[in-house]
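Subject line: Sequence and fold of a protein, written as structure tokens
Enclosed: The protein record, placed directly beneath this head.
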Amino acid sequence: MPAAVAKVCAHPLGAGKSCTKKTKHPTGKCNHHKGLSAPVSTSGAIVSTAAVSNPMGANPTQGAGVGGTDAVAWLPAEGPPTGAPLGVSVMVADGDVEDSSVIAMRYASSKAKSGHRDMLYLKLTPEGEQKMVDALGLSGTKTVVQTKQVTEMGTHPADTDGIQGQITTLAKSVNARMKAGTDRFRSDESPTNTQRLQTIRDTLEGMKSKGAGPQFDAMIAHYQQSIDEIAVYLDDPSYEPAAYGQPGGKIGMLHPWEGEVTKTIEEHVQVPIDSDLSAALLPTVEVEGKRPSIQNSNGTASWNGSMTSADCPPKMWQIDLGDGYKVLYYPDAVTSGSGKAFSQKRRMTVIAPTNGDAAGALERLDRLHLSGTPMTAAGAEYTYLERNAYGMGILEHPDVQAARVEAADYGVATAKAQVWARREETVGMGPDELRAWLRSVRTKAEADVLPARAKRLREGVAKALGFPSGAAMAADPTYDPTPKRSQGGIWFDRFRQGPNGPDPRKATTSYHVSITGGSATDIVRNGGALASTVRRRQMGINAGKGMSEGADINSGGASAVFLHFKPQSYGKPSGSSYGKPEVVWNGAQAQALSRRTDWYFTTGDHFGATNPDDHHFHDGFHRDFGKLGSYSGEMMMEGTVGLISHPPTWIKTGGHESRESVIAEFAKLGVTEFHDGRKVADVVI
């Protein structure tokens, strides 16, 4: 028998690749592939995928003004500082975590010899929640499509024949002939226009059979009037119009009919996720809504393991991530509607065991199909664009939504392609090991394509704002995708809202806050930031330090810091030292604060309501920078406002505290001079 001849395996690896290992096996396949005739499958998790078409262009990773593979904001090597009330804000390479930011906390323990406890706080987007639901393998869907009738101003639903376009074309042609020479517009000189007029009349006759009612009749009459106005030029030989440029000369602008019409539209309505969690792929139970009850003593945050239901929705999910790590999550379904802690909507807490840490918690996020790997500068542009679209109120614009969906689909397709290309790595894996491998490959692939997703989203946002292209928008001097890190949060600056929009670096608005139930000394001692109600609870600052906290939890306002704003400058705070502490931003300091993407404002006190089911909700709140200098009212800024990253013009002490005590607390943070060159001693009064 002749010796077997070595051959190249050539087993297909997906995306146009194949194995190149030598083999003498009769099947012609190497040891890795000789038993593999089809893609490995576990409940359909690995799908054969051809080469992925990149909708982002030939060079999808090319950013605009930001690039590189270094982490932009990550954990220090030793982990979060123990007891620091604001923790450390990190950015994860995930477009499904709001702001792509996670707050990592290391609480001191109030129990002797029990060590510290690390936690993560994050908030998911609606898409991120759906990914988590998919990761858990839950049945059901998040939304259903329903139809409903709405009354609005617009064209009539029966106006589908393009008659206005035909009328406009004919009117322009008649006007052009009038301008070129006397009588050239008449029918005997213009047989083409005569035929066009007849076509329009035929179109109108056809429309008459498509509807009925007062609004429909008004539309027909409107178009008949437009036709009659043009017909006199063509059909009446005795008609003598005035000169082209004079009144009664050329045909004036003819507009499409618009009126109050009733239309049937499709609406995506949220429905509760299947509450039977027994079949979840990770141990998941629905329990009473609670949160860790954090204590705070003299600026040190600690946790003794106790829980509280205060400020929580009635229910939550508790998910076991394994190894002692667990998740507390408030699903959309249990936070929608009035009186259900709307401010906690889609918020997640990951609690590490006593011997665990924040880094280990981040690593386990992939079990929920979320990325816990560092965000790079190249990928951060996606979050920058999404937060600007949110800040400008165009996140739901059709062009922006289409870009987000296409970009997300590209990420999923790329992940599937990488799974297919690397499937030989799964040979010999058991079910648990295979699921872990799948999670790892998928989350890494989706993180790797964030720059490509950013490029697609850039084009969608540019189109929605009226820029000629994404490149033109990125060339604007206000465009800066660099994330900013402050005490207590990550923020991005706004860019110009359209090619002719106002410069967001030049606001004319000033801000003022009078602090209830606290002191400037305590604020600086706790990290130097004004904090929302939700953040104060995470810091261990419990009820009584803010106004209407209970109402704000339900309205949505508990997610924000409340400031007052007006176009004119606020005066320098004065008065007795026994008054409330006050903080004022004027001039350059106010301009810097205005650039953040995460604010919205109302012209009255509506409790910062973002919950449409809350009775405080008012549809008159704005996110438009162009309107900022035209009103006075209440400004809500999400999360925190750092007094170091956004130094105010003045900080007035209050109560029994001394000016020197506030200055001393800044010094403990290493701050004697703000980054704009002003001394702390000159700001604190």
